[in-house]
Design brief:
The chain is of the alpha/beta class and 325 residues long. It has helices spanning 3-22, 42-58, 75-83, 98-105, 139-148, 163-175, 187-195, 263-276, 280-285, 298-324, and strands at residues 31-35, 64-68, 90-96, 115-131, 154-157, 180-183, 201-205, 220-225, 250-258, 293-297. Strands 1, 2, 3, 4, 5, 6, 7, 8, 9 and 10 form a ten-stranded mixed beta sheet that branches. Helix 6 (163-175) links the parallel strand 5 and strand 6. The longest helix is centred in the last third of the chain and has 27 residues, at 298-324. It starts with a helix and ends with a helix. 44% of the residues are buried.
Length: 325
């Protein structure tokens, strides 16, 4: 075969083989976004409000489809991210501390080494809420009831390893009380039961009670926030430390992809998220998120989680020992 024909065939084969890798992302294929909690909670609302403005930054072909995969404190969704093809047509939202805490307590269906963080979106302090007409006027009232009778007050949270679950455990240890924990598959269900009187205390996040922002009166009443200082969104709500219990807990939420997604795709997605968070349309459509927006690039966020590991380890060891009994 003549040399020029060999070169031409080789070049044609090379172009054919490399075509998909060189294709622009995203093309006209939908991008599935898995969320580890039921519709209506803070994670779900954040994603559904933000993704349309991110689409605009990614081009005309971008189309996100949100898939709710609740269960196991988010583990089902995290595992789906880890197992996905490294083409960024399946990504998801990860929820901290559950995402980094669960693998410390048991063998999970995913490891953090299989997932790449793209960007943190919010840093959302935990807040303790009760029904508006609850007999509990303060965190002190709740603790007094538990000291008088262990397990006499029901506390809702969104599953093992979530910020609400860990906050309850930390609160119980610090105050030396024993609450009655009830696990839910998402905040929407927890709120429903709180309103129905089936659970007395809810452990949620600041963004999940937007009706309380600005001092509005509604169906819920916040009695304490688990942060170092009071929130600008809930300025009249005291910190737990003001009640004598120095406990802080926050929920961080952001986007992640399978580990081997190409750098250029991750950078494009990270930049689109950063720009989307500054979009006035997004901020206007999601007033619950605005007070807790806290963008952080994926690599920086991963470093933060690595540093958190030592602080979480004693709690993880205690949980493993408790479950082994």
């Amino acid at each position: 075969m003549e040399m020029h024909k060999i070169i031409a065939l080789a070049a044609a084969f090379g172009l054919a083989a490399s075509g998909p890798a060189l294709a622009a992302w995203p093309d006209d294929k939908p991008i599935e976004v898995v969320i580890g909690f039921a519709p209506g909670g803070a994670t779900d609302v954040m994603a559904r409000k933000l993704l349309p403005v991110v689409e605009k930054r990614l081009g005309a072909n971008a189309k996100f489809v949100v898939l709710n995969k609740p269960g196991a404190g988010g583990e089902i969704a995290f595992a789906q991210i880890a197992r996905a093809a490294p083409d960024a047509y399946l990504m998801g939202v990860v929820n901290v501390p559950g995402y980094n805490f669960l693998p410390m307590t048991r063998k999970t269906q995913y490891t953090m080494d299989e997932i790449r963080l793209v960007a943190r979106v919010v840093d959302d302090p935990s807040v303790i809420v009760v029904k508006a007409d609850s007999k509990f006027a303060s965190l002190g009232d709740v603790l007094a009831a538990l000291r008088a009778k262990p397990e006499s007050v029901t506390f809702g949270h969104n599953g093992a390893g979530t910020n609400g679950h860990l906050a309850i455990r930390m609160l119980a240890a610090a105050a030396k009380v024993q609450p009655n924990e009830i696990s839910y598959r998402g905040t929407a269900a927890q709120r429903t039961d709180l309103l129905g009187g089936h659970v007395e205390v809810g452990m949620v996040s600041v963004s999940e009670v937007p009706e309380l922002h600005g001092g509005a009166k509604g169906q819920f009443r916040a009695i304490a926030i688990l942060s170092k200082k009071r929130s600008a969104a809930l300025p009249d709500v005291p910190t737990a430390e003001e009640a004598g219990i120095a406990v802080t807990m926050t929920a961080e939420r952001g986007f992640a992809v399978p580990k081997s997604v190409p750098d250029d795709v991750v950078k494009k997605l990270e930049a689109a998220i950063a720009e989307g968070l500054r979009d006035p349309d997004y901020i206007k459509s999601s007033p619950g998120d605005e007070p807790v927006l806290a963008f952080m690039p994926g690599a920086e966020w991963q470093k933060r989680l690595d540093e958190q590991a030592q602080a979480l380890k004693p709690m993880a060891d205690e949980m493993k020992a408790s479950e082994a009994k």
